Amino acid sequence: MESLQPVILCGGSGTRLWPLSRSLYPKQFMDLGGRTLFGDTVARVQALPGAAAPLVVCNEEQRFLAAAVLQERNANGRIVLEPVGRNTAPAIALAAFAACADGADPFLLVLPSDHVIEPRDAFAEAVAEALTCAEQGYLVTFGVPPLSPESGFGYIKQGEALWQGHKVERFVEKPPQETARAMLQEGGYFWNSGMFLFRASLYLKELVHYAPEIHERCLAAWEGRSTDFDFIRIGKEAFEASPATSIDYAVMERTGRAAVVPLTASWSDLGSWEAFHAIAAKDGNGNALAGDVLAEDTHDCYLHSSGRLVAALGLTNTVVVETPDAVLVADRSRVQEVKTLVERLHQAGRAEKDTHLRVPRPWGSYEVLATGDRFQVKRIVVSPGARLSLQLHHHRAEHWVVVSGTATVTVGDKVCTLHEDQSTYIPLGVKHRLENPGRIPLVIVEIQTGSYLGEDDIVRLGDTYGRGGPSQ
Prior knowledge:
Layout: E1 4-10, H1 37-46, E2 55-59, H2 63-72, E3 78-82, H3 88-99, E4 107-112, E5 116-118, H4 120-134, E6 139-144, E7 155-161, E8 166-172, H5 177-186, E9 189-199, H6 200-210, H7 212-223, E10 226-228, E11 231-233, H8 236-240, H9 247-252, E12 258-262, E13 266-268, H10 273-279, E14 288-290, E15 293-296, E16 302-305, E17 310-313, E18 318-323, E19 326-331, H11 338-348, E20 358-361, E21 364-372, E22 375-382, E23 390-392, E24 396-404, E25 407-411, E26 414-418, E27 423-426, E28 432-435, E29 442-450, E30 459-462
Parallel strand pairs: 1-2, 1-4, 2-3, 3-11, 6-12, 14-16, 15-17, 16-18
Antiparallel strand pairs: 4-9, 5-13, 6-9, 7-8, 7-9, 8-12, 10-11, 18-19, 20-21, 21-22, 22-29, 23-30, 24-27, 24-29, 25-26, 25-28
Helix pairs in contact: 3-6, 3-7, 6-7
């Protein structure tokens, strides 16, 4: 598999998994007991013999989250940044241009970042079969043998048999359940997994033929690229002008070279809380329990605690998901509609749509402890050797108290070292910086006071991580 280039698409938002998944902390980065779906995907491709380091296509907001996982996995992968989301066809085009940039023409193994696939051996066998098929000039998709008439998935009808796999006879959009049941009775249908394998140049050739505007815009965006630390930034204006289209619509449903190979493994796209219930271990009453949960006379529920005790009494077929700032309670049969609640949060301008109280940053994290009229309290954790940007604020002053660790603090033209129980004050409009010179995490409590306390009141004067704005 020396010519196999894994491509991990990392731009999904996972709105149906709110409140655990947020727009700035989507489901592929959710903490699932010390692991993440993105990390699992990286490990899965690392286990493929001879595969290259992964190529990740990611958006601006999650780039440091993705980079941290690659570092943890010792995966020396490249990260291409999308300035805006344009669906899968343009994202894969960027990956193809990146893979061919040095004159190579590898096979691209295109994977979403948020699927569960077990065991790895079955995945590797399907990849080997798909590679054989792709070598014959096909664009291969992976079909999952359906276990039930699921109306939340697209379907693929297999056609003429090939030496490996089958030609695709047709794609079926997410069908009503009665139609899905009839297709399962007929046979020859697979769930559409959204995973692909094909030669990079063939994908670009088919894109020119079937979706020329996407190819043109993405090529212009790629040619306008620049390198920012470990990230590849593409031309923003050109990419914004690209149609936002899935690979299915742009190429796979139109080409005569589409093929499907079966993925005979346990697979889930974890697209809803119902999917989490399906794959989780159950108690004697059919309940899936995560975290600090107490259930009494409760049946067939999904109950998830992120910290506080969740106590359930007399519930049936219910989903309860607790986080520090929001709690979801829903009927299991309606969990696909959670995205409508997220849309209402968006319309109301609620912060719970976008972030958790604990917000990851490339230097560590911060967590909002309390807010009120003209004040806010945060717990800030700075990783060993890391430092925040040199910055100032126009609308707030700050008071820092060191809880543990050692801090190097810049306030104006003065630099000092603070230890546990020591503090400093940063007046409004004065440049400042916080660093951790030690070997253990630095923890401080920050008290903000002022007329406006939003994260966009940050003027960066210098930054180790190349960030140009507060949202980064």
